[in-house]
Each structure stands twice: as C-alpha cells, then as structure tokens.
Amino acid sequence: MGKCLTDSQIARFRDDGVLFPVRVYSETAMAEKLAMLEAIEASRAGRLPPSLNAKPHLLLPWLWDIVHDPAIVDAVEDLLGPDLLCWGTSFIAKNGPSDRHVTWHQDQTHWNLTAPRAVTAWLAITSSGPDNGGVRMITGSHRQILAHRDSRDPKNMLGRREEVIDRVDEAMAVDVALRPGEMSLHDPLIVHGSPPNLSTGRRIGFAIRYIPADVAQTGGAHNFATLVRGRDHGHFALEQAPAAAFHPDALRHHAESIRRGMAIIFDKGGQTSSDAGT
After folding, report:
1. Is 7-267 a CATH 1.10.10.10 domain?
2. 8 A C-beta contact, residue 162 and residue 103
3. Residue 247 Cα distances to 100, 108, 155, 192, 233, angstroms
4. In which region does residue 181 sit, left (phi positive, over 0), alpha (psi from -120 to 50) or beta (all else)?
5. 57-101: per-residue pLDDT in tens?
C-alpha cells in the first residue's frame, strides 16, 4: 500500500500507463476554483494569456497550493518516490463548439528529460469526457518511445503540432472521463490525444508535471523547477512561492523561469509546458 494509492492502483498504472479517476476535491470546491479562474480571465479580456499560462502556479498562491496538495502529491510519490519536483503547470482549455483537437502523441517527445520518468496529474476543473473533447489514452502504449512528425494541422492544439508517425491501435483507447475535482495520472510515454469539443460548454483541466528530483533536463542545469517534496538533487534552480496573486516579485521570477525554460527547450526543438497536453 502506498500513501494514497492501493497496490492494485499502482499495478494498474504500471500496466496501463494511466490511472483514473482519483478524487482530489469535492465538486463544490472545484466550482469555487473555476470561479476564481474565470474572474482572472474576465479581468484579462476573457482569457489567461499564454505567457501567463506557463507555470501559473508561480503567479497564483491557490495554484501553488494545488501543486503541493498532499491529496495529489501523496499519489505521485507512490509512483515516483519521495523526492519530487514540479517542472511545469498549465490550464488546458477547450471552449466549445470548436474543431480544435489534439493528435496522438507522447508528452516525453520534446521534454528533453534525462530519463522518461514523470507523472502528469490532470485535474478536472470542469467535467471532461467523450461529449466535450476529453482526453483519450492508448493503454499499454508507454513501453517504448515512438517517432513523431509535424502534422501540419493548424487545428492541432499542440505547440509543435506533433503526432505519432506509426499507426495507433485505437481499439486500445480509453476515454479518461472525469468529474470536476477528480484527476487522472499518466506516464510521459503513454500515447494520448483528444477530439474536438463539440459541446456548447467549456472543458478545462489543470495539468501538473511532476518528475523525480534525480531526473534532469538535457542542457537544463540552469532551468527552474519547484521542489514539492523531499530532497533537492541540484539539477534545477528552485522556484519561489508567490506572495500574492500577480505580485511584482512573482511576475519577475515567473518571467525569468519561463525565459530560461524556453531558451533550453526551444533550442532543442521542444515545447513549453503551456502548450503540451490535451
């Protein structure tokens, strides 16, 4: 038994590459967080600008708290061990109806980690499922690194429009159906994507990228990450908690973290955490 997950849940994650649903917050609590997000969007012309949607936990104390919440971190520790970093967060939103979608891909493709050891916690802010462009996963597809190409599809939401080159066995696909306040946990190599949101509502998730602290980023000795739990292994400069929402010091620190991350990742043909996901 782990701190949060049962032996059978851990085994299912190892076998399938994904585990869901895991309840983190009540639907009432998540509705309050959705209202907080929408208030921020309303103050910024109706959306959180992309420049602020990369690592927004460095700008908003309530997101910093989510990243460190034991209800999430205990589960991640069961899968990755006691020394944990968060090296990326972002809101991933699909406003319907829209034909924007995400092609089949593996997250690890452009992350430039020294080992494909990571877990993404995908926290449902709204309901997410087949009716509104929810995430689909190819169970068991996380055992090998696959080649990718640029899909050249302008409707592809991924920053580099990447897609798996080989044919994907969609018979193995499962719909990751989540209620508000539930999360899924997935391996960085699982093949996943999502169809368009053809509903009239919004589909919003908050993606948190965790790695063991002994994993580094190629060429990234001076990149930033957030120490979430345990011991720092010295591969990243450590990020600071925001004193208040969009505090001037937080804005400066956030800008430097994003600048360094983009210099490393884009120089190597990668993508930022804000445009990687489904």
Report:
1. no
2. yes
3. 33, 32, 35, 36, 28
4. left
5. 999 999 999 999 999 999 999 999 999 999 999 999 999 999 999
